[in-house]
Write a structure and sequence with these properties.
alpha+beta; Triger factor/SurA peptide-binding fold; Chitinase A, domain 3; 3 domains; four-stranded antiparallel β-sheet; 16 helices; 13 strands; about 45% helix; about 15% strand
Amino acid sequence: MKKVISSALVILVGWVLTSPTFGQGQGISLNKIIAKVDNYYVLRSDLEEAYQSYVGQNQTPPQKCQILESLVINKMMLAKAEIDSVVVDDKIVDLELDQRMQYMVQQFGSEKNIVEAYGKSLEMLKSELRTQVKDQKIVQKMQQKITTDVKVTPREVRKFFDAIPRDSLPYMPAEVEVGQIVRFAKPTKEQKDALRQRLLDIRKRVENGEDFGKLAKENSEDVGSAERNGDLGFAKRGMMVAPFEGAALKLKPNEMSDVVESEFGLHLIQLIETRGAEYHARHILLRPDYNRLDLTGPTKTLDSLRNLIQIDSLKFDKAAHDFSEDKATADAGGLIRDPQTNSSRLPMDQTMEYALFQMLDTMQVGSISKPLPYRTEDGKSAVRLLYFKNKTAPHTAEYSKDFEKLQTVVLQNKKNRAIDDWFKKSVSDVYITLDPEFQNCRIFGTTQNSAANTGGNE
C-alpha cells in the first residue's frame, strides 16, 4: 500500500513547492516549526497546505505522518545538496520566477490585484516565491541524481498490474488532449545588432589572450553549457541546428567563428577537435531580452488562424503543422505530449503546467482559446492558441488502455524506493529532529527518539 502512497507524495511535494500560496490566510499557530533538517525546517503550515491539497482535489489524503515524511525527505535533499555542492544556476531560477509571476498576473488580472489579494508588496511576494522555486529546482536536481539509473520493463508493469486485486484497481484521473499553435516574438534589428556587437567584443578579447571558457561561463545564456565553460561535448553531424553546425564544421581546431544566428539566438563558436563523423565545439550564446519583445505581430497571426479554424476553413492540426513555430508539437498537429511517457493524454491535475491547467479549467472540449502570452521552457516570449481536443473521464485502470500511466507508476515506485534507500544511507550526514507533537510518526520506520531523528550522532 505504501508504494501507491509514495507515488502520490512525490506529486504532493511538487505541489507544495510550486503552489504560490505565500502563507495566505495562515495564522501564527500554523507557522510553528514541526521538523528540522540541519538548517532547514518544516512548518505546520507546510503540512496543512499539503493535506488540504488532497481535500481540494476530492482525494483521500494520506496520513499526516506520511505527508510529513515526504516533506522531511525534501528538506533532507536540500541539506545534502548543500553538503554535496549541488547548485542551480540563478538564471534558471529567475526564468521560472518570471513565468510564475506572469501566470499569477493572468490569474488575478493585474499586479495590483495580486498585492491586494495577499496583503504584501510585489517585492516581498517575489522574494518568498523565489525561495520556493530555488528549493524546488534543487530538489528536482537531487532526485534526478539519485534516480538517474532507474528503469522499468513491460514485465514489471504486467506483474504490478496483476498483483492488484480487481476490486482495488486504481482510479485514473481525468485526462485531456490539448493542441497548441505557437508563434514567437521576434527581436528587432537594433536588438540583434547590439548582441552581435557584444559577441564581436568577446571575440576580440579572446584574440587578445583571454580564456574562451571563462568568458563563456560569465556571458553565455546557454545555462547548461555555460557551467562547463561553453563546452557542448562531441556531436554527430545532424544533431545541431544547421546554421550552428555549418559554421562549426568550417573551422579548424581552436579557431573561432564569426557571429552565427540560429533559432536559439546568436552564437560565437570555437571548434575544439574533430573525430571521424563527430565534432567537439563550445560556444557563447546571447539572446535578446524576451521581456522587451513586441507580441503584436504573433498575436495578429494567431487571431487570423483562429478565425479560419472557427469557420472551418482550416483544420487545427493542419494550421499547427504549417504555422506553429514550436517544432516539438508542430509535427504532431500541435498535440502536447507528456515528457515522461510521450503520451498525448495528459493528467488534468496539479502535475500539469500551471498556466495550462488554469486555462483548460475555463474551456469546453472542442473550443480554441484566444491568443495567450506564453513563455517557453528556454525563456522565449511567445503567443499560443490552445485547442481543447478531448477529455477522458476518470475511470478504473485497464492494462492496455492505461499501460503508459501504469508504467509511470511502477517507475515512480522504483524511484521512490531508490530515494528511500538513499535516505537511509544518508540520514547520518544530517541532524533531524521532530516536534514532540509528532513523536509517534515513524520517519522511514524510525520513531522520534531513534537515530534517524537525531542525526545518528548521539
